[in-house]
Structures are given as C-alpha cells and as structure tokens.
Specification:
Blueprint lengths: L1 H13 L1 H12 E6 L6 E2 L5 E13 L6 H19 L3 H13 L5 E7 L1 H8 L7 H5 L1 E10 L7 H4 L9 H5 L1 H4 L4 E9 L2 E4 L13 E4 L3 H18 L3 E8 L5 E9 L5 E2 L4 H4 L9 H10 L8 E3 L4 E4 L2 E4 L8 E3 H6 L3 H12 L3 H9 L31 H6 L8 H12 L4 E2 L4 E6 L2 E5 L4 E3 L5 H16 L14 E8 L13 E9 L6 E8 L9 H4 L1 H14 L15 H14 L14 H10 L3 E5 L4 E4 L12 E6 L2
Parallel strand pairs: 2-8, 23-25
Antiparallel strand pairs: 1-6, 2-3, 3-4, 3-5, 6-7, 8-17, 9-10, 9-22, 10-11, 12-15, 13-14, 16-19, 17-18, 20-21, 21-22, 24-25
Length: about 650
C-alpha cells in the first residue's frame, strides 16, 4: 500500500505535467482551416475559377437536453426530410438510435452549399448550437470552374497534382492565410470542434485578373475542336496574342483520350518543343537579310523539286518543282530546296555567323513565362553532337532544331509589332477585396529584332503567302491577314515512317494584315494523312475561322496602348458592375443574358429568388423574362452556355 501511494503521489504531482501534456496530445489537436482561395477572372470580369464552400453536418446526439430532444425531434426530422430526402420516420429513427448508442458524431450530410448550410443551421434543435443542440458543421472548400473544361490547363490548379497554369504560378496570392480550430477526440478517428468559434480565422486569398478573353477563348476552343475531330488528329493547340501588349487572349490545348474524345490534356503550346518545319523559314530569311547575305530578289535554282545535298535528297511539295525563282518567291511557295540552297550557299563556310544571328533574335532562349513547364528551344551550333554538313541546310527550312508553339508565335508577333518583341503575358493584375494590389506591366524582350526596312519587306511577303502563295486558298477580299504555313514531318526517324507517315501542320500569322491587332498560331499534330496534312489545309482554316469571327464580332476593338496598361478601366468597370447592380433594389426581373453563372446565382438569391441552372458558363436564356414582376421565393431557371 505504501508503494502504491508513493507511485500515485509521484504520478499526480511529480510527473503530473508530463502525463497531462501527453493526454492532451492524444485527445486534442489544432485543425487547419483552409482559407478561401482567391478568384481567377477573365479580362472582362467573368469567373474562370472560384472557391466554393461545402459543409459536412453531424450531430452530437448525447449532449441535447432530454426534454428539448423529445419536444423537437419530430419537427427536426421533418425538416431534414424536406431538405435531404428520406422520410421523417427515417431521420427520427436514426437520431434516436444514435442517442441510445451514445453516438456523439452522427453523420447527417456532406457537400452542402452555403444556402443549404444556413437553412439546416436554423432547424429545430440545431439552432441551439453545438452545446445545447449538438450541431456540428465542418467547412471545406472546393475549386469550381464556371466555364467547365475551357482553358483548364492554362487556368491550372494548386493541389496534390502539382501547380501548373495560373493557379500554380500565382499561388502565393491566391492561397491566403490559413486559420485553425481546436478539436477534441471523441472516438477512434473522430474529432469534434471544442467551441463554435475559430481560434484563428483564415484570411481569404487575393483575386487574379487574367488576360484571357472569354469570347475569343470560346471561338478558339471550338474552332480547334472541330478541326481535330474532322482530321482525327492526335492533339493540337491554338494561341491568340494581342500584338502590342503580348497579352494572351486565348489558349486552347486539346488531346484525345482512349474513348476518342478531346479534352485539355496538356499545355502543348507552352511545353512541347517541336521541329517547326516551314514556319521557321521566316526566322531564316530575317537572319539572312540582317547579315546582308541576300535580299528578297536573290535568285536560287530549286531544280525540278528534288535536289541532293551532302548525300541526302531534299524535296519540295510541288511536283516538277519551281525552277529558278527569287528568295521572295521561295518564301511564298515555301520551297525547302530554295531555302536550303540560299543559306548553304552563303554560310557553309561560316555557319556560326548564321546561327549566331538566329540566337541574337532570342530564338534559343526560353521566354521566362510565369506559368511553369515551358519547353526549351534548341538550335545546334557547329561543334555540337547534332551538327553535321546537313545541319545548316536543314535548319534553313525548319528541321534539326526545336521550339515551342508559343516561342514561334512570339517571333511572328514581333514582326507584326514592327520589330518589338514582347513577352507573352497571362495575368494583368492582382486584386484584394476589389482593390488594386499589384499590376503586371508589358515586358519588352527586344525593342527591335531587326531594321524597319526588313520588317516592312517580310510583312509584305507574309501578306503574299496568303494572296499568292501556299495559303492562297485562305485568301478573302473582305478580310486581310498575313502568315506562313508549316508542314513538318514528325517521327520520321522511326522504321515504320514510310508506311505510316506522320506530320505536324501549322499556320502562324496575324490579322488584319495592316495595323494587326492579334497574332495567332495553330498547330495540329498527326492529322489523318488520308484526309490531309498540309498547313494550308489543316491548320490554316482554323486560323482563318478564328480571325474572321474575332474581327467581325469586334470590328472596332481598341488595342491597349503600352502607356495605358496601368489603367485597366474596362476591367475595373466590368469587375464592379455586378456589385453595383446587386445593390439596387428592384421589383422587376433584370436582363441576365451574358452574365457569368457564378455572378448570376448570388445576384438572384439576393433578390429572394430560388435559382436552378441548366449547363455551365454564361446565361443564354432565363425563365422569367426581363421586366416581369418578381416576388420572393419564386424559382427562376437559367440556361447556360456549355
């Protein structure tokens, strides 16, 4: 007995603090409360990504006073039945059984939105709170994309899968600051909050305003999708860039799955380095003109469409060839032989001079994008492992080197922008509670990649490609555009290539041809050869469709001046417009057409209406017409663009 007493005194007083601390560690924990991530908006204020709160509801069936329980259990069960389904008898039986079994963490529902959470919180018994009513609510947040899969890879995510796209690149702004709440262990694997309030409230993240335009994105996405489906291609991408600012207005990356459906699989435009093929002839021509080795009137003999150089044959697409033509004509008709001979004849004894001219225009460097995963460009130099006598003529017409679609577009955009090379940009600014936090200015990579005279000459040649050259089937008297076709073999080193030929089709250019507002690249990988594979046939029509739809829907669109990039007045007005509308009292139904789903729902609920949605995206139809009288509790059905 003396030994037992001594041991008890030792545990209670000598080692008491140690064991009490150990007990708390086993039965108490700080549970993280994740902050709501900031929203991601398009340039017109439409939601691209937002955090949506979800709630899991449980009940401590033991803590409720017996008299209160018996008096209100039936009304609580009836309310649960009306909101969650099942009969009121089902709910009463379930809760009574939990009370008998002393269950202090009975599951009721999960995945409830904020509106239903507020409803269930005021049900009989539950409205008494945690201690008297046994009400336990656990909040979590999920990421929602109102526009569905459109531009999903570029918008990105920030979770266990990594952090690609805008969500990953700007996570330090979007994440906010986490809070925490003390919880107590009540059973194996079960924890409940100790109090109703948080120990530390979370701070919501900031909003990101992107450069993406919902209308242009929709046009680009669906135009690319139609062409991929028609040609049964493996994958493809489209990028539309604002010429003066480098703002990316649309980017679509679609790959095929095992079921034959196309979806945003990977960001091909940013990460995939490819052999550009004939699209690179523009870079070769500009470099040769800069070095004054040739001019556009320099003559070259392309023979009969087949020419052997250093033991390897080079072919042109035209049967019988083009014969003796000028450098300008070689560009218009995209003669591989012409470019191989022009560059080799003038630089075979000094190849480094030509390669250095290419690198001097930043073609061997990454763009330094904010979103991760950019592919590396590769232009070999004399002395490299990939260098041989065939390297120089191959590079001249777009082989034996690699660039990503966005890197190719950046060069073409510089030509459209009178020589100024600007860095592609995905984000305009960061906002905090509708207040400006940080602006992202236009970044100039090179104010002049070449002389104004060379720019003027190649701009004229790019127009002639569409008027007279390989893209003449795309020409329209009603709408001007300039660009270059590209048709490159891929996987030609594989032993089965002759039996199963694979190509990459591209078209890169800008529109309108004079004072261009946008540049654009379309790349389609491995179209079904039996249907076609040339750039003018496969990718060119996508470019033309995008250009015409953008131009005809926005004929007077104003290009943002470089000096005005800090104002963003239109974005600010659009961003604030819904808040202004929602604060105005109204007894009649407003016109919701064109409003984003995530804006329309809270707006209508603030008017006391119930909302049902069909589809996702922007409102295209509403069951209560504009101007009709409305009353609280009435249901409005919104049909949304998918």
């Amino acid at each position: 007995m003396i030994a037992i007493l001594i041991k008890l005194v030792n545990i209670q007083y000598v080692e008491g603090d140690k064991y009490r601390k150990l007990s708390q560690q086993l039965t108490l924990k700080n549970d993280t409360i994740f902050a709501n991530r900031g929203n991601v908006f398009s340039d017109d204020g439409s939601l691209l990504a937002t955090s949506k709160s979800e709630y899991e509801i449980r009940i401590d069936a033991v803590t409720i006073d017996g008299e209160i329980f018996e008096k209100n259990i039936r009304s609580l069960s009836k309310s649960l039945s009306g909101l969650l389904g099942n009969t009121s008898f089902y709910w009463e039986t379930k809760i009574r059984k939990a009370r008998t079994n002393k269950n202090r963490y009975l599951f009721i529902a999960r995945g409830l939105g904020y509106i239903n959470y507020m409803k269930i919180k005021h049900f009989p018994i539950f409205k008494l709170g945690m201690y008297k009513g046994g009400f336990i609510a656990e909040q979590s947040t999920v990421r929602a994309h109102p526009l569905g899969k459109v531009a999903e890879r570029t918008i990105g995510y920030d979770d266990y899968r990594g952090g690609p796209g805008i969500e990953g690149a700007y996570k330090k702004y979007l994440r906010g600051k986490f809070g925490w709440r003390m919880k107590q262990k009540i059973a194996k694997g079960q924890w409940r909050p100790i109090s109703d309030s948080n120990e530390k409230d979370p701070v919501d993240g900031k909003d990101v305003i992107t450069t993406l335009n919902v209308n242009i994105q929709d046009i680009a996405h669906h135009s690319l999708l139609r062409q991929l489906e028609y040609y049964h291609a493996e994958h493809g991408c489209v990028v539309v860039m604002e010429t003066k600012t480098g703002e990316i207005k649309a980017i679509s990356n679609l790959g095929i799955n095992s079921e034959g459906k196309y979806y945003e699989k990977r960001n091909y435009a940013v990460y995939e380095s490819i052999e550009p093929g004939s699209a690179f002839k523009l870079m070769s021509l500009v470099a040769a003109l800069k070095l004054k080795a040739i001019d556009t009137s320099t003559i070259v003999d392309t023979k009969d469409g087949k020419f052997k150089m250093y033991g390897r044959y080079i072919h042109d697409s035209k049967r019988g060839g083009h014969g003796v033509i000028s450098a300008a004509k070689a560009f218009e008709v995209s003669s591989n032989i012409g470019f191989a001979r022009l560059i080799d004849d003038h630089f075979k004894d000094k190849p480094s001079k030509f390669i250095n001219a290419l690198k001097g225009m930043h073609l061997d460097k990454q763009l330094g994008l904010t979103i991760k995963g950019e592919g590396y460009p590769e232009i070999p130099s004399p002395g490299d492992k990939k260098w041989s006598k065939n390297a120089l003529p191959s590079i001249a017409y777009g082989y034996n080197l690699r660039m990503t679609p966005l890197q190719i577009l950046t060069f073409y955009n510089a030509i459209a922008n009178n020589g100024e090379m600007v860095k592609p940009r995905f984000v305009k600014e960061i906002r905090s509670r509708n207040q400006h936090h940080k602006y992202f200015e236009k970044e100039v990579i090179d104010p002049a990649i070449c002389s104004k005279q060379i720019i003027s000459e190649v701009q004229e040649l790019l127009k002639n490609v569409v008027k007279l050259g390989t893209a003449k089937k795309l020409y329209s008297k009603n709408f001007s555009m300039a660009g270059k076709t590209g048709t490159a073999r891929t996987e030609y080193w594989m032993p089965d290539w002759n039996k199963n030929k694979r190509y990459v089709s591209s078209f890169t250019g800008y529109f309108p041809a004079k004072n261009p507002k946008y540049s654009c690249i379309v790349v389609i990988f491995k179209p079904k050869v039996q249907k076609g594979y040339y750039g003018a046939d496969v990718s060119g029509p996508v470019f033309k469709d995008i250009a015409q739809k953008i131009y005809t829907s926005n004929p007077d669109v104003k290009v943002i001046n470089a000096n005005d990039t800090r104002n963003f007045a239109s974005v600010k007005n659009n961003y604030n417009s819904y808040y202004t509308i929602s604060n105005k009292a109204t007894r009649t139904m407003p016109n919701l057409k064109g409003m984003a789903e995530m804006d329309a729902i809270p707006f209508l609920e603030n008017l006391g209406l119930k909302v049902t949605c069909e589809g996702t995206g922007k409102v295209v139809e509403q069951s209560i017409k504009k101007g009709e009288k409305i009353s609280k509790g009435k249901t409005v059905v919104l049909k949304l663009s998918t």
